[in-house]
Design goal:
Blueprint (H helix, E strand, L loop, with lengths): L5 H20 L5 H16 L6 H25 L7 H9 L2 E4 L13 H16 L1 H6 L8 E4 L6 H12 L2 E5 L1 H4 L6 H15 L3 E5 L2 H4 L9 H20 L4 E7 L17 E4 L5 H14 L3 E2 L3 H7 L5 H22 L5 E2 H10 L6 H10 L3
Helix pairs in contact: 1-2, 1-3, 2-3, 5-7, 9-11, 12-13, 12-14, 14-15
Amino acid sequence: MRSKNQADIDTIIKRAYERFMACVSSGNAYSGNTENCLNEILQSISAINVDTASSLGQRVSTLKSLINQRILVKSKRGETEEGSADYSQQFAELGARFIEKPTRKFSDLKGMEEIKRNLMATVVYPFVYKELSKEFGMSLNGGVLLYGPPGNGKTLLAEAIAGEAGLSFIELNPAYLYNEYFGKYEKNIADLFRLTRQTSPNLLFLDEVESLIPRRETSDQSAIKRGVTQLLIEINRLMMENTDGTVIVAATNLPWEIDPAMLRPGRFDQKIYVPLPSSDERKEIITDQLSKGYYFKDIDSNIIANMTEGFSFADLIYLFKRATQQAFFESVEKGTKEHVRMGDILNQIGTIRRVYSSDLIRKYELFNGQ
Ligand SMILES: Nc1ncnc2c1ncn2[C@@H]1O[C@H](COP(=O)(O)OP(=O)(O)OP(=O)(O)O)[C@@H](O)[C@H]1O
Ligand SMILES: [Mg+2]
């Protein structure tokens, strides 16, 4: 292995830091994503074997502390758009992310044509064409539940609905809202819905809703049970009083673990299954990935699409990232520019484990018919 000199290390660290900063300023660096960005970048550094280990270690710590400082500054400041900083901060205290003007659009998502058309017609258009939708007697009935295996765009879809309809986006992370002290959880819930009403028109996204509104009979914590009851009351109230101000979108990987009261008619009438990508959709995202990398050579997207049944959209993106990282690593080692070839991708396919059994997929497919 070629040893790295100080200048190489400096360049690697500098690039890693720049990548992290780009991630922060693109608004991606929030809660779980910040950690992902950080881990990915640190992994890419530690993948580089250097003789001057102590020096690299020192530099990695410097990078970490720079990054941590940046995260602290960011979270203290909230999103700094004029006028929204205060709300961002208030939502952040309740474990929610507030984006005043989301820019995500349906066109950012590959495939999913039917789902996108359906959401456009039933959620986006009634907001954008308010008068016309009133003339047609159309109103948004209740909320939307997106369910399906992880990594197939539920969160992206929720953000894109907000972007298309010109709504602010509020994403709730249930773990932060929860508080075991008597009355505190209820207060957090009340505060969240009060802020939601104050900042409408908006979209309230309840992610991992099965942990927010679990079946009451399976929970032995009274705070959770009281929380479920109060959440259902607040959701009802929001739907009745604020009919053209807030859209509620919930998402889950485990729809059968949600309290049945949430799924009663009039609450989340639209239940949309967001499945694993079909072969055509896999081909679409593979072609998109190929168009983004400079160093792909002789790669047959049909073969890869055929070999990746059971992969999620996120798995497919990860597959290309892994193969590219490998080529980058070899390029650094050999001091050349190595292409990513078909064999590299095929090697990586074997390392990505498909966790979805056909039984689980059937369970999803049957859920809405219940
Ligand atoms: N239709 C799509 N087009 C392009 N990229 C996609 C698509 N769906 C998912 N992705 C990629 O997968 C990543 C994960 O998507 P997302 O977070 O929306 O999945 P999810 O269904 O909400 O997963 P989870 O259930 O784990 O929350 C995205 O950041 C994006 O890179
Ligand atoms: Mg998600």
